[in-house]
TrEMBL record:
Keywords: Membrane, Transmembrane, Transmembrane helix. This is G-protein coupled receptors family 1 profile domain-containing protein. InterPro entries: UCP031277. The keyword Transmembrane helix applies. The keyword Membrane applies. The chain crosses the membrane at residues 28-52, 73-90, 110-132, 144-170, 190-215, 227-248, 260-283.
């Protein structure tokens, strides 16, 4: 069976160069990926562990809001944030050396945009948008959370079509499918950059609008500040990521600049993932526990006062 243009380009690039060595930018990417994955695992553990507190009677259950509805959406956010960071490892040289042998060591470079930006990032952004709209009553959970995996279908289908359709069926220029530079380091294919632009153009205005709505109905300055911080730390990194990854595929001197540009792209999306996990998962649980303890305090004081009066009698 005839291969697609993208796969043919990757196999040809693997024949022309040996597997690259790890550089400083690669170790920085691996370290950042570990940090984001660890934060996602911590957020998952927090949501699952504190579900027992939500089952307690009284107002504490309502304030924690860790029931099946919001808990499921927050777990999805942690899962896709972790997947987005873990997918970054696919493009690192040590991964290609461990998984495939020459001349196929460039093929994982094609899997990276498929997993990271065809599955993980669309679902991550869709979950952030869902949680924001649910906080203002614009979405009903948990039913709306079931639609999150379908958010990646258009982008995933486009990536799969590029990788699967034979060159005779889709004879696009090979320059659009370059997944590696002259040193066999993973670059970002032009077709993937175009799909990433479409992803950012779709979700950036939606997220800005949702953050603005949350800030408009926030009950205090702290919640309003968090809505603005979420807009700044999740929406603003999207164009930075697009520019950095696009540069990694067209830069004239890829030996030095391609890994750095790719690291900047992942740094932007890593900041977005960490901010979303902190603001939408960890801080609400912390606030709920803190407020829950405060609300139980007057009850305890009243009970102590009643006991004291009975002793005086």
């Amino acid at each position: 069976m005839q291969a697609s243009v993208a796969v043919s380009e990757a196999l040809e690039a693997g024949k022309l160069s040996a597997a690259p060595r790890d550089g400083a930018a690669d170790f920085a990417v691996a370290w950042l990926a570990v940090v984001v994955v660890s934060l996602a695992v911590a957020a998952t553990c927090v949501v699952v562990s504190f579900d027992a507190h939500a089952r307690q009677p009284g107002r504490l259950r309502r304030m924690l809001d860790l029931g099946p509805s919001v808990r499921g959406a927050r777990l999805l956010l942690a899962i896709f944030a972790g997947l987005l960071a873990a997918a970054e490892v696919i493009r690192l040289p040590f991964f290609s050396r461990a998984v495939v042998s020459p001349p196929r060591h460039v093929v994982p470079c094609l899997a990276y945009p498929l997993v990271a930006h065809g599955v993980a990032e669309p679902c991550f952004l869709a979950t952030v948008l869902l949680l924001l709209r649910a906080s203002t009553g614009g979405a009903r959970l948990p039913a709306a959370a079931l639609a999150v995996p379908f958010a990646c279908l258009p982008f995933l289908s486009a990536h799969v079509a590029v990788l699967v359709l034979p060159a005779a069926v889709a004879p696009y220029p090979g320059q659009l499918a370059h997944a590696a530079d002259v040193d066999a380091r993973c670059a970002y294919p032009a077709y993937a950059a175009a799909l990433l632009v479409a992803l950012a153009a779709l979700y950036a205005p939606l997220l800005l609008s949702a953050c603005w709505t949350v800030a408009a109905v926030a009950i205090n300055r702290r919640m309003r500040a968090r809505a603005y911080a979420l807009a700044a730390l999740v929406v603003v990194p999207l164009p930075v990521q697009v520019v950095a990854l696009a540069l990694s595929s067209v830069w004239e001197t890829p030996r030095r600049t391609s890994p750095v540009a790719a690291f900047l792209g992942f740094l932007a999306v890593g900041i977005a993932a960490a901010a979303a996990l902190a603001i939408l998962v960890l801080l609400p649980v912390y606030d709920a526990l803190f407020l829950g303890d405060d609300e139980q305090l007057p009850v305890a004081v009243a009970a102590a006062g009643k006991e004291a009066r009975e002793l005086d009698r």
